[in-house]
Amino acid sequence: MHSSHAIDIGHEYIDTMKAEEHGSQTEYILSFVVNGSITMRHRELIELKNNMFSLIPAGMPHSIVNGENVEVWWVSFCPNCLNLNEDDSIMQPFRQIRLGALPVLKLPTERVHYLHSLFNELNTIIKHEQHCDIEVLKSLLVLILYEVKKSSQIEKSIAATHSKVVSALDYIQRHFLNAISLKDVAKAIHTSPSHLATLVKQDTGFSIGEWITRHRLTEACSRLIHTQDQIQVIVEELGWSDTTHFIRQFKKAYGETPAAWRKQQKEKVK
Fold first, then answer.
1. What pLDDT is attached to residue 75?
2. Residue 120: half-sphere exposure toward Cβ, Cα within 13 Å
């Protein structure tokens, strides 16, 4: 496994950030603003300033609105590659965000210097060592995630999202590999399909079907990268009715067919 598929990192200085839509990324993304300000949309407008984290689980829709004089560290990683998942204690902040919490946390000032040392060490190993020990990279990532977990949530919390929406998103997260629909999700959380559809659309901007599709597409990307499975096999295992429909949805999300996307990802590590 190539390290950049498991963990990657960057340290950037950006004078002006322009509006940019996101939401189909296959990795989990953690950003830390050192200086400047970034305005992003995640259900609502959020402003990131000095010493703030932003956490985005794979497949979560969000967008950059603008940013000025920004210095930022970012880390992207594939939990499956590292034997991590959202049920792990260290990953709980990502799970809370998937279920409705705002993706912004504040790092205490006294922890900033230590966090920078972790970022710098991770960056040095990934960018300058020819053969990266994946266990060392994971250890550094876990230490960073521990700092995230200890940080404080900004302003609003998971309580701001309707409890039925939280339960629905949680059910989808746990069962998206099964053949589930709006009716199945509504039955599982004891509400009517029409009422649930309205709540989820109002709270998240996306339908139940779109959330299921996003989860499946993210899992499809993971399998395209990390297995040699034929696309037809992936289609059947992830619950699409036919290959043509899967290819159409994949291309809409990522701009390429699954075969072309897989080839491009493989070529990145040659």
1. 96
2. 6
